[in-house]
Amino acid sequence: MGEEQVVREIGHDEYDPKGTLALIAVYFVILLVMWVFMYFVEFLGNELTVV
Prior knowledge:
The protein is mainly alpha-helical. It is built from 1 helix and no strands. Keywords: Membrane, Transmembrane, Transmembrane helix.
């Protein structure tokens, strides 16, 4: 119980958010695929319909 833990401060220069950037990139890729599906499959292949 008397042990001290070492706390390391991370400055702004050392912080490299690669995981966050990867998640945002994956999110935009999913949005792009959904847009391509909606545009090329739904709108160009068929007449416009109201669902």
